């Protein structure tokens, strides 16, 4: 039987605020345990939550970016369950009236097509604390620093049909929230993570199958692997006569499998009700318009503009707009060089990105800024150096040896464009290789490459390759 | 509406982590049923066109600026905790 997979993702993006969603405690990562958990975060008697304005603005920006309606009135609700890292016995979330309503995003697929993915809603909520189960005999250690950290939970429609689509969607939203500056996107620190609802059904069946929810996936690779494992598990189960049960599962990256979280059968009875400690959140047009004016150019728009303005391919434009920093660096390079957009694209995507990756550096602390890169590219453009020599110069620039012109001078890398000088080298090469010359003249055309190589070698790579080709062609004829 | 039975009372009590004695269950069942009956009566009112209130006060939530105003009082908070270690609150082991 042919099976179809149905996937919906719930993404948790930690909003990049200084203080928590309902208290003035710091959200900074990596502090000593429980030093950033105040009376409100601990759920002490008599405390009251007060909503952080920045959290609301960020949620509104996200809603506008996905073309969603921003609720003029939304309501906070209590989601009730007991767990030691949830001090109040409930999580403040939004249920019936979330701040961001239906929107959508477009993902690009590997085959070059694109697909619209619906976003059901996005709502504000507080994060829980962290439980450490390993180090304490018979006890669990609880760190409540994370309790009360603001989260935007983004719920997709069940529109995704494969693990690859799910990853493409997750990457798209990751790019979007980072562009918007509302989330730092740091997945190792848990700032961006997701739960995946996965089910399978016979192809063509209009009804959804029973779904399993895989919790807390914090890398793109884990999302892909966990979903792929889960699809196979469900199909095997059904084909061998079993039934998928609705349950929560955890992905074990070491074993590469998902397994059931036992003992949580009753966990879905959350008894939501409006939180009496918080009044309805009412937004006026001025607030929403202010959020709208703060929207940066979004990834899709930027990509389109790059294709038109710089005449780049869709692929190049996608790579260059992957982050605002990279796109900004690229545009600054083109501006500094005054054109040659494709040459700039090749270098920014190529050597520049490769060196950044190699050293694990951010663009902000790259040793080669856009003006310096443009200075190097100018020397390729005016044929002072070849593209190959430019790589050597770039490496020296990266190592801090100065700008392109200084390095070209110091290492005397200036390209030889003087025809008579190149001819001299060619004559030397021909004189030194009489056998090859004879073979070439007898019809062994393949040897042309040999002569090019010898000339380049003798000139230490500095002879202008195009001129070498032209002159060699003439001279070898005899 | 069917009145609540003692099994439902036991379930609600468990969800709320309330320890109730078995012999008290029938009394809770009848009290809770009476409350639900009252809600049922209110349900009969025609509320077409009335926006449900999420709060008894007809006011909107005030917002605060995003500023860190709290300092570390861990020692003070942990003074009343039954057990702590390495800055963590210790609780009976929770099995995942």
Helix content of chain A: 25-40%
Total of DSSP H or I helical runs spanning 4+ residues of chain A: 15
Shape category of chain B: flat
Q: Element order, helices and strands of chain B? A: HHEHEE
What summary fits the major beta sheet of chain B?
2 strands, antiparallel
End-to-end C-alpha gap of chain A: 71 Å
Main-sheet strand order of chain A equals 6-7-10-1-11-12-13-14
Rounded to an integer in angstroms, the radius of gyration calculated over CA atoms of chain B is 22 Å
Q: Give the strand tally of chain B.
A: 3
Mean pLDDT reading of chain A: 92
Helix share, percent of chain B = 25-40%
Strand content of chain A: 15-25%
Walk me through this protein's architecture:
The complex is a heterodimer of chains A (478) and B (96). Chain A has 478 residues and is of the alpha+beta class. Chain A has helices at 53-65, 163-180, 220-239, 285-293, 299-309, 314-320, 324-337, 341-359, 370-381, 387-398, 404-410, 419-432, 434-441, 448-458, 465-477, and strands at 3-14, 51-52, 73-74, 76-80, 90-94, 103-108, 114-126, 130-132, 139-143, 150-156, 192-202, 212-217, 247-252, 257-260, 273-274, 281-282. An eight-stranded mixed sheet of chain A has the order 6-7-10-1-11-12-13-14. A three-stranded antiparallel sheet of chain A has the order 5-4-15, with no helix packed on it. A two-stranded antiparallel ribbon of chain A has the order 3-16. In chain A, α3 (220-239) links the parallel β12 (212-217) and β13. The mean pLDDT of chain A is 92. By secondary structure, chain B is of the alpha+beta class. Chain B has a domain at 6-44. Chain B is 35% helix and 9% strand. Chain B has helices spanning 6-15, 25-43, 74-78; strands at residues 63-64, 84-85, 88-92. Chain B has a two-stranded antiparallel sheet. In chain B, α1 (6-15) crosses α2. The mean pLDDT of chain B is 92. Chains A and B meet through β2, α1, β9 and β16 of A and β1, α3 and β3 of B. β2 of chain A pairs parallel with β1 of chain B, so a sheet runs across the interface.
């Amino acid at each position: 039987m042919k099976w179809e997979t149905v996937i919906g993702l719930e993404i948790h993006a930690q909003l990049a605020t200084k203080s928590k969603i309902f208290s003035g405690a710091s959200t900074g990562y990596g502090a000593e345990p429980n030093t950033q958990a105040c009376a409100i975060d601990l759920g002490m008697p008599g405390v009251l939550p007060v909503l952080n304005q920045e959290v609301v603005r960020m949620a509104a920006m996200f809603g506008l970016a996905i073309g969603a309606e921003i609720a003029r009135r939304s309501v906070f609700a209590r989601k009730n369950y007991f767990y030691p890292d949830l001090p109040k016995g409930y999580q403040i979330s939004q249920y019936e009236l979330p701040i961001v309503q239906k929107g959508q995003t477009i993902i690009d697929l590997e085959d070059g097509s694109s697909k619209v993915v619906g976003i059901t809603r996005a709502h504000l909520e507080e994060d829980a604390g962290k439980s450490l189960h390993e180090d304490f005999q018979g006890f669990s250690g609880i760190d409540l620093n994370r309790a009360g950290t603001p989260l935007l939970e983004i719920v997709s429609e069940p529109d995704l049909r494969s693990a690859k689509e799910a990853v493409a969607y997750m990457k798209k939203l990751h790019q979007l929230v980072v562009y918007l500056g509302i989330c730092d996107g740091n997945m190792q620190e848990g700032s961006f993570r997701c739960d995946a609802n996965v089910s399978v059904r016979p192809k063509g069946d209009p009804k959804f199958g029973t779904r399993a929810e895989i919790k807390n996936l914090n890398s793109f690779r884990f999302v892909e692997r966990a979903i792929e494992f889960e699809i196979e598990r469900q199909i095997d189960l059904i084909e061998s006569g079993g039934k998928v049960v609705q349950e929560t599962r955890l992905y074990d990256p070491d074993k590469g499998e998902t397994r059931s979280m036992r003992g949580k059968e009753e966990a879905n009875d959350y008894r939501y009700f409006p939180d009496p400690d918080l009044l309805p959140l009412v937004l006026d047009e001025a607030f929403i318009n202010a959020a709208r004016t703060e929207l940066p150019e979004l990834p899709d728009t930027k990509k389109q503009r790059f294709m038109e303005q710089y005449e780049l391919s869709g692929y190049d434009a996608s790579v260059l707009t992957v982050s605002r920093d990279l796109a900004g660096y690229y545009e600054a390079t083109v501006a500094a060089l005054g054109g040659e957009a494709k040459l700039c694209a090749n270098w920014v995507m190529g050597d520049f990105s490769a060196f950044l990756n190699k050293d694990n550096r951010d663009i902000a602390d790259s040793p080669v800024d856009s003006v310096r890169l443009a200075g190097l590219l100018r020397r390729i453009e005016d044929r002072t150096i070849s593209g190959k020599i430019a790589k050597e110069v770039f490496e020296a620039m990266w190592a801090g040896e100065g700008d392109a012109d200084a390095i070209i001078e110091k290492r005397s890398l200036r390209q030889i464009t003087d025809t008579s000088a190149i001819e001299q080298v060619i004559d030397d090469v021909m004189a030194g290789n009489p056998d090859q010359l004879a073979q070439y003249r007898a019809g062994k055309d393949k040897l042309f490459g040999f002569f090019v190589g010898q000339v380049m070698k003798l000139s230490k790579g500095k002879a202008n390759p195009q001129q070498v080709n032209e002159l060699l062609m003439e001279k070898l004829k005899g | 509406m069917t009145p609540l039975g003692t099994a439902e009372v036991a379930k609600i009590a468990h969800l709320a982590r309330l320890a109730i004695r078995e012999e008290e269950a029938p009394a809770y069942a009848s009290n809770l049923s009476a409350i639900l009956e009252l809600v049922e009566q209110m349900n009969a009112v025609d509320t077409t066109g009335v926006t449900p209130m999420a709060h008894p006060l007809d006011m909107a939530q005030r917002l605060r600026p995003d500023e860190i105003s709290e300092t570390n009082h861990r020692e003070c908070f942990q003074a009343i905790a039954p057990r702590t270690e390495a800055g963590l609150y210790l609780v009976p082991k929770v099995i995942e």
